[in-house]
Amino acid sequence: MNKERYQAQGARSITRLIASTCSEWFMSFRLLAVFVVISCSWSSAYAGSYWKDSNGAPIPDTESRRSIGEFGGALSITSDPDWKEKWNTPAETTPVFKEAKVVAQGEKVFVLTFFANPGLSADHEVNITCDLKVTRPDGTASTNQRDTVCFQGRIQGAPNNLYLAAPVIGFVGEPNDPVGVWTVDITLKDNVRKVIMPLKSTFVLK
């Protein structure tokens, strides 16, 4: 499966907006790094109104990967410190991210959000925002950020390719953090299609 690389127009303005709207939340969540990733695509990963595997067979929706109509979204939590290098590889290389399910104190994990086939405005622009919520094992919210910019502007590739959303969350468990199941909820909002897509994933801090 090949993937293609595209740079979106207006990436600099997206960078400034992400930094200004999310700074307080990032600090409260002990963010290790915030990366605004150049809009990338992973060709043939998504087509039609459902996800498909490498053989082209439909894959059922899950809490962390689903589609609504023709819009697709996915959430992945990885322990790969080199996730960015894996994504920014030659087009013929398919990145494989190590899923983080159990996380030790001091270990870094990264939350990646993907979308595919967004709606296009009359000016052929994409407008995707997202709500970001992280819940501790005791049920209290570590953060609850609404309407963060995930992607705004034009994409240079085919809309039904897979794109990496701008907010990438880095987390490390500290000694005073509660052990147990941490829940990550990301709600993708395609403001052109008027579609709201909730995604959820968890990891265990031990």
What attributes does this structure have?
five-stranded antiparallel sheet, disordered N terminus, five-stranded mixed sheet, mainly beta, globular, Immunoglobulin-like, 206 residues
Describe the structure.
The N and C termini lie far apart (36 Å). This protein has helices spanning 11-28, 83-87, and strands spanning 46-47, 50-52, 58-59, 65-68, 71-78, 102-103, 108-116, 126-135, 141-153, 162-164, 169-172, 180-190, 195-205. It has a single domain (11-205), classed as Sandwich (Immunoglobulin-like). The chain is built from two helices and 13 strands, in the order H-E-E-E-E-E-H-E-E-E-E-E-E-E-E. With 206 residues, the chain is mostly beta strands. 33% of the residues are buried.
| Uncertain residue segments | 1-49
- H and E order: HEEEEEHEEEEEEEE
Instruction: Quote the average pLDDT.
Output: 76
| The CATH class | Mainly Beta
Helix count from the secondary structure assignment: 2
Number of strands: 13
- Gap from first CA to last CA: 36 Å
In short:
By secondary structure, the chain is mainly β. The protein has helices at residues 11-28, 83-87, and strands at residues 46-47, 50-52, 58-59, 65-68, 71-78, 102-103, 108-116, 126-135, 141-153, 162-164, 169-172, 180-190, 195-205.
SSE inventory with pairings:
Layout: H1 11-28, E1 46-47, E2 50-52, E3 58-59, E4 65-68, E5 71-78, H2 83-87, E6 102-103, E7 108-116, E8 126-135, E9 141-153, E10 162-164, E11 169-172, E12 180-190, E13 195-205
Parallel strand pairs: 6-13
Antiparallel strand pairs: 1-2, 2-3, 4-5, 5-7, 7-10, 7-11, 8-9, 8-12, 12-13
